[in-house]
Amino acid sequence: MSEKKMSSSRRHYLKSLMLSIAKGLLEEEAKENEQERIRWMEENCPPLSLPGGTQQLMEFLKELHHKIDVIDEERYDLENKVNKSTKEIEDLNIKVIDLKGKFKKPTLRKVRMSADAMLQALLGSKHKVSMDLRANLKQVKKEVKEEAYRRGGKQSKRSESDRTVIRSFGRLRRHGHQSQTHDASEKTPNT
User: Fold this and answer.
1) Average pLDDT of 161-175?
2) Each residue of 121-156: pLDDT tens digit?
3) Dihedral angle at the C-alpha atoms of 141, 143, 145, 150, nearest 10 degrees?
4) Does the pLDDT of residue 95 top 70, yes or no?
5) In Å, what is the CA distance from 150 to each residue of 114, 139, 140, 146, 147?
6) ∠ at Cα 20 (16, 26), nearest 5°?
7) What mean pLDDT is predicted for residues 74-85?
8) Per the record, where are the segments of Polar residues compositional bias (predicted)?
9) CA 185 – CA 178 distance, rounded (Å)
10) Are 90 and 108 in contact (CB under 8 A)?
11) pTM of the entire predicted model
12) Coil vs helix vs strand at 119
C-alpha cells in the first residue's frame, strides 16, 4: 500500500533510457521505410533506357532547362499582372466604400405611432404628457383666402394699412393729373 518514491537520479536515468530506446526504434523504422521506397521504385519505375548516350541526355536536359526558364518568365509576368490587378481592385473597393460612406445605412421600417405614444415610449410610463401637434400650427382665416381668390388668385403680402396708402396715392395721382391739365389750360399766355 505504501509506495516508495523514486529518487530524482533514478527517474532521470529511466527517462533517458526510454528516450534512447525510442530513438533506436525510430531509426529502424526510417531504414525500413527507405528500403520499402526503393523496392517500390524498382517494381513500378523501370530503368531509363537512352540509346544515344550521355551527349543526347545533356542536350535533352539543356532543352528542359530552357523550357523551364521560359515558363518561369511567363509565370513571373502573370504573377505581376495579378498583383497589379489585385491592388487596383483593392483601391477601387476603397474608393467605393469612401463614396458610399463608411457604414451601410440600415433600411428603416415605417412605424405607425402617434406623438403621444412616442412621448410615452421616450419618457416612460411615469410621465403622462399629451401633445397636440395641431395646436402649434398657424390658423389661416377663410375670409383672407376668399378675398385673394376674388382679386385673381394672388395673395398680397402687404398689410391692410399699406393697401389703403396705395389706394389713396392712386386717387391723388388721378385727380392731380386732371387738375394739372386744367391748370395748364388756364395758364395759357394771353396775346
Assistant:
1) 71
2) 777 776 666 666 666 677 766 665 566 666 665 545
3) -170
4) yes
5) 39, 21, 17, 6, 5
6) 140
7) 95
8) 178-191
9) 11
10) no
11) 0.27
12) helix
How confident is the model at residue 98, as a pLDDT? 79
Quickly tell me which residue has 387738375 as its cell.
179
DSSP letters spanning the chain: -PPPPPPHHHHHHHHHHHHHHHHHHHHHHHHHHHHHHHHHHHHHSPPP--SS-HHHHHHHHHHHHHHHHHHHHHHHHHHHHHHHHHHHHHHHHHHHHHHH-SSPPPPPPP----HHHHHHHHH-SS------GGGGSPPPPHHHHHHHHHTTSPPP-S-HHHHHHHHHHHHHHHHHHHHHHHHHHHTPPP-
Task: Give the pLDDT mean for 176-188.
Answer: 51
Amino acid at residue number 92: L
The secondary element (H helix, E strand) that includes residue 18 is: helix 8-44
Give SS3 for 173.
Answer: helix
Give the chain's mean pLDDT: 77
